[in-house]
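Re: How this chain folds, sequence and tokenised backbone to follow
How to read it: Take the token row as a discrete description of the fold.
Start of record: The labelled sequence and token lines come straight after this line.
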Amino acid sequence: MRRYFKHSLFFILPATLLTGCFSALFNSDFDTIMGEYNVGWIADEKSRTICKGLNDGDKGGEELFDAYIFSVGYNAKYIVAKQHPYDSIVDLKTTNYFVIDYSKHPYAKQDGIYGPMNWEAYQKLNTELSIGEIDFDMNYPEDPN
């Protein structure tokens, strides 16, 4: 019995330690926006972006925009995201807007992806595409630094 216990510890202890390490290495958080689109980050909250998975409700997937996405709103046809550019620090002085035309189900750099653009350009696009009023109801810390 004692010999069995020694051998069990030999396998159980490293497995327990590795599981804890790997979960810390791959810390992440994702929220579904709609369909196959989600907003989330891996390893560092400042890497928050919008991804397109393969199926509805997928977490992660192809990154559509550069980080740091801090607010997302949507309606039946469009997803709109607000971004502070991130290059070693989050630039809080700049806010970019991105639009996804959900009806086209685009991946990165395809027709149906618009941005980055400033507020004025977003307002112009909003009028051109008849996006309408967007309720930004998915909000994250504006300053994750």
Notes: Residues 28-139 form one domain. The chain has two helices and eleven strands.
